[in-house]
Design brief:
There is one protein chain. The protein is of the alpha+beta class and 358 residues long. It has two domains: 13-125, 3-layer Sandwich (Rieske Iron-sulfur Protein); 129-346, Alpha-Beta Complex (Naphthalene 1,2-dioxygenase Alpha Subunit, Chain A, domain 1). The protein has helices at 152-160, 165-168, 178-181, 285-315, 328-346, and strands spanning 13-18, 28-32, 35-41, 47-51, 65-67, 70-72, 79-80, 86-88, 106-109, 112-116, 140-141, 144-148, 185-188, 192-202, 218-227, 231-240, 254-264, 270-278. The strands form four sheets. Strands 11, 12, 13, 14, 15, 16, 17 and 18 form an eight-stranded antiparallel β-sheet that branches. A four-stranded antiparallel β-sheet has the order 5-6-7-8, with no helix packed on it. Strands 1-10-9 form a three-stranded antiparallel β-sheet, with no helix packed on it. The protein starts with 12 loop residues before the first strand and ends in a 12-residue tail after the last helix. The structure holds FE2/S2 (inorganic) cluster (FES) and fe (ii) ion. Residues 158, 164, 168-169, 298, 302 line the site of fe (ii) ion.
């Protein structure tokens, strides 16, 4: 195996697509951790992932032709099966055992397609975090995807420090400057960072006014884990102040569950998959649509500031940064990831993920 993707964690599950992005008849070409891949479904519906590079002369298989469960390179006609094995060479009968392209383990679960970029023998599906909220009758949400011209760690940094809500999302997801002043509780777990933020007795966030109203102030919470390699699972919501939300009671609450995955495409570009689901007003399509629009508007605000930040860093990589208390969660996550990558590269590959529930 070449080391073109050596700066990324490999023995872990990455979200590589929404299920709907890989329809029955066509091909999806997408790069994950610097490695061009091609995805399609076999006739049983199982998602196949192969390296997007013919073993003959390196033509991309994404320019190829599907033939049932197989794919033919449309340069000189080699035919590959779903395991990546070459099964036909038009100009010769003998097929060498080395005539194959790499296949990657895939698991499709709750509308997300997960790929294992490391050693196939270690690809244990039980290590995939629980994202059932993406496909659960008790929650409603809309799938979202954004492409980032930025390193994936800048995106996970953003998810690990919600003090930006008061500034980046002042009129959308955030609101009061009090939100930025909160000191969240940060817990370092085995393979994830847990963040808990409570803002008590404040006005509802601006986006909530289109979804649910209360006569007075609310208590707001964002309680989430960011799991290696970059999957956020977040319980969030608001409930009227004085009804016991901080003690665990959820009375007349607007509850949400967010699943977000940041997957490196290259060292300078990223995929961002997300769905914010609501657990109230389930049959009110206006609520679902308003939430979709608010989330998209908010995430465009994130992308705008992160791309601008990336351009500044790119122009002056040695310019430096100044660590602050608010960076505690993102610094812990970066340290955890760096250690995992170093461990992976220095010893026998081990499973680098775990199932996490919040
Ligand atoms: S490059 Fe694919 S068959 Fe020659
Ligand atoms: Fe944000």
């Amino acid at each position: 195996m070449s080391d073109i993707d050596s700066s990324f964690l490999k023995n872990t599950w990455y979200v590589c697509a929404w299920s709907y992005e890989i329809p029955a008849e066509s091909l999806l070409a997408r790069t994950i951790t610097q490695r061009p891949l091609i995805f399609w479904r076999d006739q049983s519906g199982q998602v196949i992932a192969l390296a997007d590079r013919c073993c003959h002369r390196a033509a991309p298989l994404s320019k190829g032709r599907r033939e049932g469960d197989r794919i033919r390179c449309m340069y000189h006609g080699l035919l590959f099966d779903a395991t990546g094995k070459c099964v036909e060479i038009p100009s010769q009968n003998y097929i060498p055992a080395t005539a194959k392209v790499r296949a990657f383990p895939i698991v499709e679960r709750f509308n997300w397609v997960w790929i294992w970029m490391g050693e196939p023998d270690h690809a244990d599906p039980s290590l995939i975090p629980d994202t059932h909220y993406l496909k659960d009758v008790n929650w409603r949400g809309t799938p979202g995807y954004m492409h980032y011209d930025a390193n994936y760690l800048l995106v996970t940094d953003n998810l690990l420090d919600f003090s930006h809500l008061s500034y980046v999302h002042e009129t959308t997801l955030g609101g009061s400057a009090k939100y930025a002043a909160i000191r969240p509780k940060i817990t370092r777990l085995d393979r994830s960072i847990r963040v808990e933020r409570w803002l008590l007795d404040d006005e509802p966030a601006p986006f909530l006014r289109n979804l649910k109203t209360w006569p007075g102030n609310v208590d707001r919470w964002n309680i989430y884990n960011v799991v290696l390699p970059g999957v956020l699972l977040m319980d969030s919501g608001s409930a009227p102040t004085g009804t016991g939300a901080p003690e665990g009671k959820r009375v007349d609450a607007a509850e949400f569950f967010g699943c977000q995955a940041v997957t490196p495409e290259t060292s300078t570009t990223s995929h961002y998959f997300f769905q914010q689901s609501h657990g109230f007003a389930l049959d009110n399509r206006d609520v679902t649509e308003n939430l979709r629009q608010s989330v998209l508007a908010g995430f465009e605000e994130d992308r705008d500031i992160i791309l601008a930040q990336q351009r500044v860093i790119h122009a002056d990589p040695e310019g430096g940064m100044l660590a602050m208390r608010m960076d505690a969660a993102l610094a812990s996550f970066r340290t955890m990831l760096e250690k995992a990558i170093n461990l992976e590269q220095s010893c026998v590959p081990k499973a680098m993920n775990q199932a996490v529930e919040i």
